[in-house]
Hints:
Number of helices: 2
Structural class: alpha+beta
Amino acid sequence: MDLAGYVALTRQSGLAREMQSVANNIANISTTGFRREGVIFAEEVRALPLEGGAVAMTSARARYTDAAQGALEQTNGTFDLAIEGDGFFTVMTAQGQRLTRAGAFGRDADGQIVTPDGGLLLDEGGGAIAIPFEVRSIGIAADGTISADGQPVARVGLVTVEDQTKLFRESGTLYRFDGDAAPAETAKVLQGFLEQSNVNPILEIARMIEVQRAYEYGQKLMDQEDARIRLVVRTLGSNS
């Protein structure tokens, strides 16, 4: 493969990653708290074994997460929580502390508030939140304060992330943050609501078509380049 083929191949590889990202977004249109993800295309200049020689290739290794808030759907569930504004819930998983916008919580056998996967919802001090089953009424205020039968028992820990480059998606709605998260002072907790996915299906399908066409064009270019090289080889062979 010649230089033009390698350049085209780096673009094709990036488009394949973008298509995977678009497909994952579409698959999570109905996932609570899911945030759309995309691929960042950049120019990567490589030196050539010639004095002053260089070639620009495509680099698509970085990803970004769309921070736009999804629509809020009222469920009236006692432990269904949504965040209005910039912030994340903190949960403790088997892999350590993680951040999430998915607020479909419940209680385990010990009365602890947990995610569907069993991760513990943490309070502002980093501890688990437990509410006895004999409690008759549970209220959660906008600042995250949890009241049981009218008595405050804990406050949901909300954090905000300023440096988005240190936020890494680990699974559908869980994120690892390699830094110091600050308390989310302006975010509000809404009890009985869930934040829906912020994926716009129309835009994602349009993007899928665009990526597919770009990939087909790149493949056509590579096929034409391959045919050109074969023609050159045959011509040189016939003249030798």
